[in-house]
Design goal:
The structure is a homodimer of 277-residue chains.
Chain A lengths: L1 E5 L8 E3 L3 H5 L2 E9 L2 E2 L2 H15 L5 H15 L5 E9 L16 E8 L9 E5 L19 H8 L7 E5 L5 E4 L3 E6 L2 E4 L10 H12 L5 E2 L12 E8 L3 E8 L2 E2 L6 H9 L6
Parallel strand pairs in A: 1-6, 7-8, 7-14, 11-12
Antiparallel strand pairs in A: 3-4, 3-5, 5-6, 8-9, 10-11, 10-13, 13-14, 14-15
Helix pairs in contact in A: 5-6
């Protein structure tokens, strides 16, 4: 494993060879981890998702390698109080014959620290339904791979004042945001779109689920069609990810959505990632 | 546009910043072009496909930029007789907020020359049907983007003595190889799988189609199911791409296929790319 630690806020200073397979084919994985006062949050869950992805793609990587690299980045992060974002990129490295990887690849792990995004307003955020459908290859479902062109193009098409684009499946059901998982209230119960149909398995959603389970509350899986959002059974929509936590949706394609009634429970769980690890 | 020319056979000597969007998200395109005695073959068609992809993805690039860069690589290529491969990678460059690209990206164009692959045997090649389904987002159909994890994994799963893996659609129909387009004979007529269902629009297939059209022969679009290959109407399967030209398939999952009767016409067209440009 070749490990590269990028100096904070100087990503242009560090580079990878042009024959890296991450660049050539998106042959790799990534994670973005919230760092609070120098401590990476939900680190174990992020490492597990990356290692699960690596196993499924056949990229040789082990937990010890990741932890060692994160420790080096942590030393850098600890000098900065408050919030930062730690990004891990794991590629299959260089080599191979075209698409075909080398039999014993030497992966490349790149760590970089970045400023955290600005906080979202308490009133919630505006969203749109993307024109770009989400296609999920069942072989790669849940893997946070470097093949993210759909998310790039959905983000690019968003109006400037919009926070997130929700990506529809082939039936028009809303599956996930470009960078967030969906959690919604239906008849007072928390639901999320079926997990085998989303591109990325959300670390934060799993964390919230574990937290709710301690209170005996279950999240069920059920598709969400846009027209459901206007029905009386619908109680509101929340976007979740590791960096922003839980953010209520105020509008969808310009129409007001109800503010989720049990939002405080979700946001409080999202704000305390380590306590529930 | 930032242009990077990689010294021949030294890809590790040149690098791109870790925040390049091609590495981060597969946010870019590529082309592989056959070079014969220093001359890139079907250059115009390759540039057109890349520029069409760039337009659809919103990556600012113009033909003059590509031609100027290729001219620089050509100067290097001209020192080598025989066949080489010229690879062009065009990324959206660095920057943006996460998936969302910057409003005015500065793309990065990377050119590298590589040795051509060994010639294929006249008797044809062995192929398998991949376990990995091909998912084609209709918004990106035909674009040769850097999101190629499906092709990587299908190549990786191939037996060592196998030349190509044929990727099935969700109905099990054979759509394309990992790096080749499919052309087959049915009742003595040339057919190819429907073009809106394949991931990459083939430059060589279009070239062969133009050549056949001059002789009044048409290629029709129709899906190919594996069971059809055992039927008497089936007359053989040919793999085509810009680098290898046209290669007959000898076996599919270990079963012998008939040798295409009109193969000579196809291989002769494929061997003379420039004459039919």
């Amino acid at each position: 494993m070749i490990t590269i630690i990028v100096p904070e806020n100087h990503p242009e200073a560090v580079s990878v060879p042009v024959n890296d397979r991450g660049l050539a084919y998106g042959d790799g994985l990534f994670e973005t981890i919230l760092v609070r006062d120098g401590e990476p949050q939900l680190l174990q869950a992020h490492c597990r998702r990356m290692l699960d992805g690596a196993r499924r793609l056949g990229i040789p990587a082990c937990e010890a390698d990741l932890v060692k690299a994160v420790d080096r980045a942590r030393a850098q992060a600890s000098e900065v109080p408050g919030y930062q974002v730690l990004k891990l990129v794991l590629t299959r490295g260089s080599g191979g014959r075209g698409y075909r990887p080398p039999p014993s690849p030497e992966p490349r792990l790149i760590l970089s620290l970045m400023a955290a995004p600005p906080a979202t307003p308490d009133s919630g955020v505006g969203t749109v339904i993307s024109d770009i459908p989400l296609t999920v290859n069942p072989v790669f479902a849940g893997i946070k791979s470097l093949n993210r062109l759909e998310q790039v193009m959905a983000s690019r098409a968003m109006p400037e004042d919009c926070y997130e684009a929700l990506m529809p499946g082939d039936q028009g059901d809303l599956r996930e945001g470009t960078r967030t998982a969906l959690l919604y209230l239906w008849e007072g119960q928390w639901r999320t779109p079926p997990r085998e149909q989303v591109a990325v398995r959300s670390v934060m959603l799993a964390h919230i689920e574990r937290g709710l389970a301690r209170e005996g509350v279950k999240i069920t899986e059920a598709p969400l069609f846009p027209e459901q959002c206007q029905r009386p059974e619908f109680g509101g929509l929340v976007l979740v990810n590791s960096i922003v936590g839980a953010v209520p949706v105020q509008t969808l394609d310009g129409r007001e959505l109800p503010r989720p009634g049990q939002l405080a429970t979700i946001t409080s769980l999202a704000k305390q990632p380590e306590e529930f690890r």
